[in-house]
Amino acid sequence: MKQQIVFKVNGKRVRYAGAPVTRLSDVLRDELGLTGTKIGCNAGDCGACTVLLDGRQVCACLTPVGQVGGAEVLTVEGLARDGELSALQRSFHRHGAAQCGICTPGVLMAAADLLSRVTRPDAEQVKQALGGVLCRCTGYQKIIEAVIDAAAAPADPPAPSVGRAVGARVGKVDGVAKLTGSERFGADAIPKNALWLRVVRSPHHHARFIIGDLERVVQRTPGLVCILRSRDVPSNGFGIYPTVKDQPVLANEEARFRGEAVLALVGTRDAVDGLPDADLPIEYEPLPPVMGLQAAMAPGAPLVQAAKPGNLLQDGGVRKGDAAAQFASCAAVAEGIFETSFVEHAYIETEAGWAERIGVGGDARIEIHVTTQTPYMDRDEVAVVMKLRPEQVRIVPTACGGGFGGKLDLSVQPLVALAAWLTRKPVACVYTRPESMAATTKRHPARIHAKFGCDALGRLLACEVDADFDTGAYASWGPTVATRVPIHASGPYCVPHVRTRGRGFFTHCHPSGAFRGFGVPQGAIAHEAMMDELADRMGIDRLEFRRRNALKAGERTATGQLLEHSAGLVDCLDALAPQWRELNQECERMNREAQRDGSPLRRGAGVGCMWYGIGNTSLSNPSTMRIGLSRTGEVTLYNGAVDIGQGSNTILTQIAADALGLPMHEFQIVAGDTDRTADAGKTSASRQTFVSGKAAELAGLDLRQRIFAAARAPEGEWRDRRYRLSLGRGAVVFRKDGITHRLALSALAGDSDRDVLTGSGTFDPPTTPCDADGQGVPYATYAFAAQIAQVEVDLALGTTRVLRLIAAHDVGRAINPIQVEGQIQGGAIQGLGFALMEEYVPGRTENLHDYLIPTIGDIPQMECILVENAEPLGPSGAKGVGEPGLIPTAPAILGAIHAATGVRMRQVPVLPHRLLAALKAK
Amino acid sequence: MPAYARPARLDEALRMLAGGETTILAGGTDFYPAHASTPPRRDILDISAIRSLRGITEQRGHWRIGATTTWTEVIETGLPPLFDGLKLAAREIGGVQIQNRGTIAGNLCNASPAADGIPPLLALDAQVEIASAGGTRRIALPEFLLDNRRTALARGELATAVIVPKARHAARSHFLKLGTRKYLVISIVIAAATIEHEHGKLRKARIAVGACSPVARRLPELEAALAGEALGAGLGAKANASQLRRLAPIDDVRASGSYRAEAALTLVRRMLDQLGAGE
Fold it and tell me: Which residues pair with B119 in a beta bridge?
């Protein structure tokens, strides 16, 4: 039913002719091209689509366009006036309040509503107004600061002078695009003529199925072009590891998890959306599923994958000394079993992208525009699936609206590629929220048995850790987790005798994959509980106990690796010590008062520590960066490292600018495109600042050297930092103390990118393989951190509120402190969710109202302390920080709950009913 | 595409409604989430343009809250303390975006066991005004709510208003909600109460608990036990588990049933203490 609806958007009159029941969000995006308004759930659960309707914030996804006739709509595109950012947007830019940017339009509009009513809001008012918008990246703290500061005519972020970009709190180089709605994410630039692809998924955890006559369905459904099934996929298996391609693109006769792809409908959007699954000729025969570790490990358990006896994916470990023999001589031994749940990444941007077949015959190629963390791996995986040469596949990453590890696996890529290849038309696919949650990877649930012992002085002597992980139906990153955890399982401590083991087991669940920390957050819950318990037994302060055992430079890790530099855990603990004492005293005082007054509220403080190996485990993981100088004097960073919101575009520009000797604003970026950038590896394992950062530094130095050489400057002069470079029309000029060199660029020969000079840098962190006992150098460097949390527990309800969180992180060097803080805060709030509320239950929590992530109202007062214990291998001494922020938080919270209540929670999340049951069992 | 009608007059809407299977749409906050993955198929009657269905008016003996009055309007309308509990509930329904769009009758007609708006309306002794082409009727809210997601609305009927009787004595109300996070959270337990008092004594109490049974329930035994009690922070002590035994809380992803039962009593006690003390 079509109808004419006239309304105003951003002050302009618009006319819409179509169905009045259409969501306002769809009209804004699809009809009016205003893709700044994002769709995160289509259910009012995330607030990404927030716009102002007659001055009030509403979810555009819940508003029928039929109701906006005559109304005024304001979207994020309407905030800036004549290209000038609003005060609110400027404040966001300065405070680094946008990370990936997918929730930013919704956050901005909710804040704009507030600021139109309250000129100088306080933090409580900001929380109340923004309570309906979820942000998964920032941890909200910088958002609150930015909204409060918006009233005070915020200054622009600093523009550091040449050579001073590293270490400066510069704004994101792509920040303005994220604040104006002009950034293009996976679903934002789909060609109008694209066909749409909808995946039909198994409604059963485990089933055999028979597919009937699909041809008839295609014939009788107007707009439907084809239906893809398993036999249409040239090589129907993908997977992270070169030798493990165990996950089908489309399941063949057997579905191994609820949400597994069975068919792909390709046609007009109306046709594929309008054809219900129930109308398709698929006959499922549900089979008993293997759910959970216990079922998978049971003797004689049905096999999830026929070729995997015992449902075992991988078994590995580390052995140093003789741990078992030591416990008898320990002064204290602690032991416990810890359990964690599936955790969903819950990035606000669901998987999305489109593909197009380019060229004909043997030259034909497939180009895929997609939200991803790993363009080169996507390229190689799609090539395998489609039996093409890797060069025939081009991945053009769109902006990525949050990854956290979840966009390291293929999602839409092989499907849209195959459909576009076959139909010779562009084909797009955007996952719905329930689909994104049901079909994509999760954090591995873990069951960890840990045993630690120390001597009479509180020095750790031995540890044994056995960690079992539910890896779901397919391998995905299961081997990575099973390898990384045993290496880290003894914690950031010097332990002479270590035996650790990590195993992954298959179940009929969605694959468990990569999620911020690769299993280390699960392991940290175990080793930190052990530290608390040993400290308590020995009568040593919990922070002091950790300090006594902290790994230091000059000591050896569980894998026998000598830490030569940059092991700053002691510095982190020392930085926290004064506040630790104060918080503990405050808790004691308040608990005495509460007890006296009959209040059910108890406070406690806890400390958590972590270490984290930067980069891939014992594997080569190089990055190559290139910087081009064009004939007209433009500098381009060809950057294959995908910025998923963490800020690598900015970090790499800062590093490259200082190495080359030019200001940051001279740089343009070509990001991720596999045709135009070199392989920088995956945005994972906290590696981009360390690995790609080093490559960017080397590329900057290389280009500087080439410029000097081309200008025939004396040998070695390029190292002289007194030279000031400037870019003129078609020339580079560099001066020092009256000496001037000039390089005319017009005379030089250019390459395909019109660059006349290119600097290149490659860095591969030095590691060695680990032997059968797990001994070796798995990582070139490690990040260290300690966090303290203060909680308040309601003893009568079992609820926990985190009041304070203080995080001290050894980052080597903070290239951009504002972004480092953002990573720590965002990671910590994911850690808070992991500890207190996040639990994915297949089939039960496939939306953002049954699966809960922290809102702006759940965050504590946060403080970051940056410790800079330089890593000589890293760029300007920097290491990684992407994952470390999350790891110590849950342990600190669990320790704080124990301090407040005397109860040690061994299962996360600590939902109120679990804590209350534990309190009663005490 | 289904038909979509947005009449400006109630009689027009009722005529259309008499015609057949129609989904009623107002704020859209429950309609669209039900269609997150699949497009709507049934014909739609959008009642948001009917002015007579919107707004809060004081009348002799009662307050009339029009069906499409939003939660934000409930919050922003100047109302006596009798409505404080309803206003607290309004602030807990979704985020501000939902409060700006979601309607009071929508919350009732959606009939979720965990609807935050229902316990305070039960505690207000609210009635639902129902219209059809054949006429108008009023039924008490407990009779309107039949079961999880099921109401007494017959085919062709539309809920047009919520009627709240005025209190005989000085009255105030309260609301407490328990969830796993601060905002945008489906309640584990909801407690709401209205008390009427005179000369420092409690004349009448109406107490309701939500999210602990298929339909939120009043607690008549507790209400009876409270009558005549002196106001003050000790009111909560009058509540005990046996008064809550008609609740039938279930286990789900949010909490266990036994936890709900215990938390409901805790919440009710705290609410009564705070209400008694006039906090």
Answer: none
Residues B160 and B177 occupy one common structural domain: no
The domain containing residue B103 runs over which residues? Answer: 4-165
Q: Give the separation between CA A99 and CA A165, rounded to whole angstroms.
A: 19
Euclidean distance between CA atoms B212 and A719, whole angstroms: 73
Report the candidate in B151, B158, B165, B164 with the shortest Cα–Cα distance to residue B52.
B158
Q: Which residues of A touch B263 (CB under 8 A)?
A: 797-798, 912, 916
- DSSP code at position A163: T
Please give the mean pLDDT across all residues of chain A: 97
In this predicted model, what pLDDT tens digit does every residue of A542-574 receive, in sequence order? 999 999 999 999 999 999 999 999 999 999 999
C-alpha distances out from residue A641 to A18, A395, A494, A547, Å:
42, 13, 34, 36
Residues in A touching B182 (Cβ below 8 Å): 127, 131, 855-858
Q: Does A143 lie in the same domain as A72?
A: no
Picking from B116, B64, B126, B65, the residue whose alpha carbon sits closest to that of residue B90 is B116
Together in a domain, A791 and A724: no
User: Rounded to an integer, what distance in angstroms lies between the CA atom of residue B219 and that of residue A847?
Assistant: 33
Strand A12-18 with B22-25, pairing: unpaired
Indicate if A916 and A799 belong to the same structural domain. yes
Give, in degrees to the nearest 5, the angle at Cα A576 between A574 and A581.
105
**Cα gap B79→B84, rounded to integer Å:** 8
Among the partner-chain residues A131, A798, A799, the one whose CB lies closest to the CB of B184 is A131
Q: How close does chain A come to B128, measured CA to CA in Å?
A: 25
Same domain for A644 and A789, yes or no, is no
- Check whether residue A578 and residue A654 sit in a common domain: no
Provide the CATH number for the domain around residue A746: 3.30.365.10
Residues of chain A with Cβ-Cβ distance to B33 below 8 Å are 42-45, 62
Matching residue, tokens 């994959």: A513
Contact A1 B97 (CB under 8 A): no
What is the pTM assigned to this prediction? Answer: 0.98
Q: CA nearest A355: which of A190, A480, A521, A507? A: A190
Distance from the A871 Cα atom to the nearest Cα atom in chain B, whole angstroms: 39
CA distance B262 to chain A (A): 8
Q: Same structural domain for residues B129 and B251?
A: no
Are both A73 and A158 inside the same structural domain? no
pLDDT at A2: 80
> Does the structure's ipTM exceed the value 0.95?
yes
d(CA A859, CA A908): 18
Helix/strand number for chain A, H first, E second: 22, 31
**DSSP class of A423:** H
Token pair of A583, please?
A: 């918080």
Distance CA A207, CA A230 (A): 15
Question: What CATH number corresponds to the domain at position B9?
Answer: 3.30.465.10
- The answer on pLDDT for A1 being more than 70 is no
The contacts of residue A582 (CB under 8 Å, 6+ apart) are: none
Q: Nearest by CB to B253, which of A3, A799, A845?
A: A845
A667 and A701, same domain (yes or no):
yes
CATH number at residue A151: 1.10.150.120
Give the residue-averaged pLDDT of A368-375. 98
Question: First vs last Cα of chain A: how many Å apart?
Answer: 63
Element (H, E) at A312: strand A312-320
Size of interface A-B (CB pairs under 8 A): 164
The range of the structural domain enclosing residue A798 comes to 557-616+778-921
Using only the alpha carbons of chain A, give its radius of gyration: 28
Residue A904, exposed/middle/buried by CB under 10 A (0-12, 13-18, 19+)?
middle
Stated as kind and residue range, the H or E segment containing B277 is helix B257-277
Please check whether residue B3 touches A, CB under 8 A: yes
What one-letter code names the amino acid at A69?
G
Q: Nearest residue of A to residue B44 by CA position? A: A21
